[in-house]
TrEMBL record, chain A:
Pfam families: RecR_C, RecR_HhH, RecR_ZnF, Toprim_4. It comes from Kineosporia mesophila. The gene is recR. Residues 74-169 form the Toprim domain. This is Recombination protein RecR. Keywords: DNA damage, DNA recombination, DNA repair, Metal-binding, Zinc, Zinc-finger. A zinc finger (C4-type) spans 51-66.
UniProtKB/TrEMBL annotation, chain B:
Residues 4-79 form the DNA replication/recombination mediator RecO N-terminal domain. Involved in DNA repair and RecF pathway recombination. InterPro entries: ARFGAP/RecO (IPR037278), DNA_rep/recomb_RecO_N (IPR022572), NA-bd_OB-fold (IPR012340), RecO (IPR003717), RecO_C (IPR042242). This is DNA repair protein RecO.
């Protein structure tokens, strides 16, 4: 029982108390439900892997997006996590391909550029097909710093490097915007066609 | 009713908690280092916005809790974050400063006014881009260790006080040592390196700025070793700090085209600073170094 609580406690967002609650819940559940959970977990580690090209979660060696010939191979969108791919795909705005870094540069948490899929990104660019890179790391300071690092690395390769504009949240009042958001919104301003 | 208090603070660390919350570690002016929950901060509509990101100097109102406090209101005093994150060398230097401040304020809620002022001044200096980031970092490290009670000596003998400069340098004894106090195996840094360290400690920027790259490298090695000698756990962000002239650690394959015209979307720091200047600070800015 303690082993189970310890293991659950390692999951993101699960503290010791929640781990205990989940463990007791499992103990009191119908064994059929629990076996289904176990089967789902086993399937995840056995069948789901990471796309060899972009690093996105995938059932095949090449993910659905990388193997889709209709996607624009000249534009690459760099994101931190697979869940960011899902979020961008939902917008249906982007027709290029992705590169999943596996996180952001965070020296204080012991994560440097070598711990992310940066080498893989540079290797991918060697074919010359990609001409534009969209840096879509999280709009926080670690994401900003990661974008700064990548822009500096990719600049000498002659690529068009852009950063996702992070503007003001729609539905909010300007006076409540914080300084960083307001600053970035100035930066990402666009010409109005009237 | 939980107690409410208000203080100035620097955000040292922001860790994800659950779906939308964060635990922030703050170094406050009057309450030392505190950890607090910021609810809903990761939602794009959060009223806290980017005010609770690392490197930010804020005016914050907190509800006192048993182990964790809760952030209630935040205003920005110094938005150093984006200028710092827009330059990788500055970002890595600033991160090492935050981690060191965390290490040197071992006990939560124990007031550490000097450490607070020093870190605020250091971050402000970094964001002003007046000096090479590695120098600002080393100046900060030496001074924060001094404030913590481990002031190194770079001229007189650290053990007997005999007037220097001396050739030998011993981490264990606290810096420069005279020939009679010198322990076996003491380092013998270049005299210029010791002069640089001394300049960084006292804030003699004209001398520090004029120093040679190899003296800076030797000085930062000594500072890092001195820091690790005194703090128990390793300051892990130090290994990622980019020093003067360092290049990215990733090698670009030879077959990647490099002669195509470059078009890079630059982060327009000037525009951001103009936008920030429009927001008048509510409190006095900290003294730069
Ligand atoms: Zn893929
Ligand atoms: Zn002596």
């Amino acid at each position: 029982m303690q082993d189970l609580i310890d293991e659950l406690g390692h999951l993101p967002g699960v503290g010791p108390k929640s781990a205990q609650r989940i463990a007791f819940h499992i103990l009191q559940s119908d064994p059929v439900d629990v076996r289904r959970l176990v089967a789902a977990l086993t399937e995840v580690i056995d069948k789901v892997r990471f796309c060899v090209s972009c690093g996105n979660v995938s059932a095949e060696e090449l993910c659905r997006i990388c193997s889709d010939a209709r996607r624009d191979g000249t534009v690459l969108c760099v994101v931190e996590e697979s869940k960011d791919v899902v979020a961008i795909e939902k917008t249906r705005e982007f027709r290029g391909r992705y590169h999943v870094l596996g996180g952001a540069i965070s020296p204080i948490e012991g994560v440097g550029p070598d711990d992310l899929r940066v080498k893989e990104l540079v290797t991918r660019l060697a074919s010359g097909e990609v001409t534009e890179i969209i840096l879509a790391t999280d709009p926080n300071l670690e994401g900003e710093a990661t974008a700064t690092y990548l822009a500096r690395l990719l600049k000498p390769m002659g690529l068009r490097v852009t950063r996702l504009a992070s503007g003001l949240p729609v539905g909010g009042d300007l006076e409540y915007a914080d300084e960083l958001t307001l600053g970035r919104a100035f930066e990402g301003r666009r010409l109005l066609d009237v | 009713m939980p107690a409410v208090y208000r203080d100035d603070a620097i955000v040292l660390r922001a860790q994800k908690l659950g779906e939308a919350d964060r635990i922030v570690t703050l170094l406050t002016r009057e309450h030392g280092r505190v950890r607090a929950v910021a609810k809903g901060v990761r939602k794009t509509m959060s009223r806290f916005g980017a005010r609770l990101e690392p490197f930010m100097l804020i005016d914050v109102q907190l509800y006192e809790g048993r182990s964790l406090d809760t952030v209630n209101q935040v205003e920005t005093i110094g938005a150093y974050g984006l200028t710092i994150a827009a330059d990788y060398a500055r970002y890595t230097a600033a991160t090492a400063m935050l981690e060191t401040a965390e290490r040197l304020t071992e006990t939560e809620r124990e007031p550490a006014l000097q450490q607070f002022l020093l870190l605020a001044g250091g971050l402000r200096t970094l964001s002003q881009k007046a000096h090479e980031p590695g120098l600002v970092l080393d100046a900060y490290l030496i001074r924060s260790l001094s404030v913590a009670g481990w002031a190194p000596s770079f001229t007189d003998c650290a053990r007997c006080g005999q007037a220097g400069p001396h050739r030998a340098f011993s981490l264990a004894m606290g810096g420069s040592v005279c020939p009679s106090c010198r322990p076996p195996g003491a380092a013998a840094p270049h005299p210029e390196t010791l002069r640089l360290l001394s300049a960084l400690l006292t804030g003699d920027w004209p001398s520090a700025d004029a120093s040679e790259a190899r003296r800076r490298r030797e000085a930062s090695g000594l500072v890092a070793a001195y820091l690790q000698w005194h703090v128990e756990r390793r300051v892990r962000s130090l290994r990622w700090v980019e020093r003067d002239g360092d290049r990215p650690s990733i090698n670009v394959p030879a077959n990647v085209p490099v002669n195509v015209p470059v078009k890079v979307a630059k982060i327009d720091v000037a525009a951001i600073e103009r936008a920030q200047a429009a927001v008048a600070p509510t409190l006095d800015d900290p003294e730069p170094f």
